[in-house]
Specification:
Elements: E1 10-16, H1 20-31, E2 38-41, E3 56-61, H2 67-74, E4 83-86, H3 109-119, E5 123-129, H4 132-147, E6 151-157, E7 170-176, H5 180-185, H6 189-199, H7 233-241, H8 246-260
Parallel strand pairs: 1-2, 1-3, 3-4, 4-5
Antiparallel strand pairs: 5-7, 6-7
């Protein structure tokens, strides 16, 4: 049974983050007013119940260091406008990992999907590493969301599109409850084409700044390798390395708002 937890929201955000260091970082950012005011929940997503989310305007899962909240603000999304975000762990689908896919215990889409199904938020933004395995993951997630009457859209955008000195391709997606009837009346053939391109390992979006994303850019941030045991340094690099680039997400959110708010 679905609940209406996102209705009649208060201007507070819910942040779910299991990592203690990242959770402390979130609290510092909230205290400094740099991201939406709210509460940080360090429980595993498996332990979160729909009633825990009742009344929150924004719910950020796998919140990390608050990149999605900052991106929403950069895009002009008010703190009291309902939205959910979630960048499910990328390790099961990253080419740098063990590539266990849905057999990896860090594959947490089923838990996120269950909360979406029960709470019925109006808009869900998400992000995932750009890889062939992640493309298959995204198609599965879209199938689940469309069965819940969401319309879905996606783009593969690199960090260099906002002048960052790295490629860092990421899949950004949105699921919108309100556009289902419009989408049913006018099928979006570009969505089908996008799925074909992803299945073939192509990159349908080459960046917002044209030729600025050349082959000379590095793939990921060039952070130094450090020895585990140095106080806080490893935690800092891990938290920053797992974070989204808020400026890229803001461009994606802004593009969605231009259509949804027209």
């Amino acid at each position: 049974m679905r609940t209406s937890s996102w209705r009649s929201p208060i201007a507070r955000a819910y942040y779910n983050e299991i990592d203690a260091y990242a959770a402390g970082w979130l609290r510092n950012l909230i205290g400094a007013g740099l991201i939406a005011p709210g509460d940080v929940d360090q429980r595993a997503i498996q332990d979160v119940q729909p009633d825990d989310l009742r009344g929150y305007a924004q719910c950020h899962f796998f919140a990390g260091i608050g990149g999605w909240s900052l991106a929403l603000r950069l895009a002009g999304w008010p703190d009291d406008r309902p939205v959910w975000t979630g960048s499910c762990p990328c390790q099961p689908f990253s080419s740098a990992g063990k590539r266990l896919g849905d057999k990896d215990p860090r594959h947490l889409w089923p838990q996120f999907r269950q909360l979406i199904c029960l709470c019925d938020p109006p808009v869900v933004f998400g992000e995932q590493v750009a890889s062939k395995a992640a493309s298959a993951w995204l198609d599965h997630a879209f199938d689940d969301l469309e069965c819940m009457d969401y319309a879905c859209g996606t783009a593969v955008i690199p960090a260099c599109s906002v002048a960052a000195p790295m490629l860092r391709y990421r899949i950004f997606f949105v699921a919108n409850r309100a556009s289902v009837q419009t989408r049913a009346a006018q099928p979006d053939h570009s969505s089908t084409q996008s799925r074909k391109e992803r299945a073939q390992g192509q990159e349908p979006h080459r960046g917002l700044s044209g030729d600025s994303c050349g082959a000379h850019w590095i793939s990921e941030p060039n952070v130094p390798v450090v020895v585990d045991g140095f106080p806080r340094i490893v935690d800092q690099i891990s938290a920053a390395g797992n974070a989204i680039v808020p400026q890229v997400a803001a461009e994606f959110i802004g593009a969605y708002m231009e259509i949804a708010d027209a």
